[in-house]
Amino acid sequence: MEKSRFDFLGFRIYYFNININDKYLLQEENYIIDVKKDIKRSEEDKKFAEISLEINIISESKNIELNLKIKGAFKSVDDMDEELFIKMCEINAPAILFPYIRAFISSCTVLTGIPPINIPLMNLSSQ
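The chain above was modelled as a monomer; its predicted structure follows.
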């Protein structure tokens, strides 16, 4: 098996906030999910990029609000074309980070005593 030319160096969730209305009763909720993406490339090393995702979730009843910010670091091997690296950062990097986001939010919400928020699979390539 050939090693990928697009390396995932790691991630960090650097901000997480959840607000639950004190009067909230344990009921099924529908959620509005908003995802923002930002790509920062290093000036010194064009083969390195930091991808930031911000996830905002609010229940339709406005009883639950959640905000999470995550950064992931990615690097290309020396022979990767710059255009391909940019495309990998735009499409593949968010897809690599999203399972960590989904697991974190599901775990944290269930630990607060509310039903877990299970984020559906999302197509982030159009973002």
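Residues 97 and 113 are 26 Å apart (CA to CA).
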